[in-house]
Predict the 3D structure of the following.
Amino acid sequence: MLPQLSFGQQRAGYSNFLLNNYYFNPAIAGSKKVHEANIAYRNQWVGFEGSPTLMMANFQGSFKNQGKSGYGVTAVSERKGITQNSTLYLNYAYHFRLSEKIKMGLGIQPGYMQYRVRLYDAQVADPGDEVLTGTVYSANAFDVSAGFHLYSDKFFVMGAAHRVLGKQIKFTSYNTNLEFHFDGIAGYNFHFKTKKKKIFELQPSALVRYTKPIPLQVIGMLKGTYDGKYWLGFLYRSSDAIGISAGVKIKDRFTVGYGYDYTISRLSNYQSGSHEVMLSFIITKEKPSLEKQDEDLNNSILEEMQIEMEMENDKNKK
């Protein structure tokens, strides 16, 4: 007989939700007007035996880079103790304008999941127990996620429901439900110009996560980005952890991000924190229109003229 199993928070956790928010909401796909590939890895509770590890890879894009229809595919592999969960998601999202500056995205994400229990890895009094030797239980399930994404250059509000079908995972002699999940994310972008005419963006945001029957969880994050290339973030996860993240964008194509969070609950006595790494590569992106190219060129010329005038004024003052 298969022993009683607990899958807890069945959908994998990921603290730095701004590094790869596509994972949290299918309506994100296509909103950036690019084709983008992402890889993420999380090693949770380092030093704690059987601690969760997460590997995730996804590709998402916008048809003809126009930002109207988006699509994507995501593969996730999570290992916790003697359990391993592998999932493949497909994605479609449609985006439309509510006003000149505000857009709405609606997305749907079917997924196929495989859950495996490796009983031979269990720590028992008799390691040679024939019942456990070489035993692997496996079960499959299909489910759907759906979400919305309301956004502009200044703010974003999004929500997504996962495990909406409430399917059961059926093992040999034990069944467990895929519990309902909800992720809500909101944030605002503040833009400031530095003395060197560089843009500094300050972005406070929050993730609210509900997973039946686990209590509501809130992650608050404050992220600062300089010149669109370098960023630093701080996070707080309700009554559980604090963290820091940093990253850099190289040549507007390649992004590297790292995050670390440290548990402040009683669990801190048994582990040394969690690490997250993210790599992102923009394969193709929207080509600017001729009008946009002319506007950028004119702005560049005006900025150079203004800098020259300021330098000339400084010389005259001296």
